[in-house]
Fold this protein.
Amino acid sequence: MGIRVLLVDDVPEVRRLLRTALRFRGGFEVIGEASDGAGAVELARSLQPDVVVLDLGLPDLAGREVLVRLRGHSPSSKVVVFSGAETADEEWIATHVEGYVLKDAELDYLVDLLESVGRPWETEAVLDLPRSLSSASEARRFVAEKVAEWDLAPLLDDALVVTSELAANAVTHAHSSCRLRVSLNPTSLRIDVLDTGTGTPEPRAASNTAEHGRGLHLVAALTTAWGLEVVPGEGKLVWAELARP
């Protein structure tokens, strides 16, 4: 069975274009289509898709509202925004979905992202870290071992920077112990950090004098995608993906 996809867009021609691109690539199954937010939420509830491709410019529900409802009714579904509409919630939405692609981007890029987001991971490794200043260095050592084991040497430097930033955020800003997970699929190396602290990481405006705040901009620059998910009963998960060579 391929990656099960729900298409949500109020323009039939866009849905047809996406459906054709996914069929041409192979490995996908479009299990439903919706032209508005209410329909999307109902289909997500009943079908539980692997991935939802979501347009933000829907006629009935604003982007943030439809995303919250989708998460509530189908929490295991990944959401990739594919939208040309600007919204005041764009920054918040970008940190609460698995991918954010503008409609003027190459369609192959969107399909690659859907494949990465929806495909089960080949292998993974997990490390529990205490609330300690030494956790970032422990996390880097663990990731370095896995990168070497999985023969991904070209990704080592970027992976260590991303790992250090995510682990340090959990310990320093969330004031929490954390769980580090490193996962591998055919296209991506993914680094997850789960913590139980309050608040969410937000990129800050660039500053030449501030001691903190640049880290997430660096993560965004080094990775193909990154984001944040709320895990009911466990905390929040901050993740980042690096494209495999």
Residues 37 and 60 are 6 Å apart (CA to CA). The first strand starts at residue 3 and ends at 8. DSSP finds eight helices and ten strands in the chain. Strands lie at 3-8, 28-34, 51-54, 78-83, 99-102, 123-129, 178-184, 188-195, 225-231, 235-243.
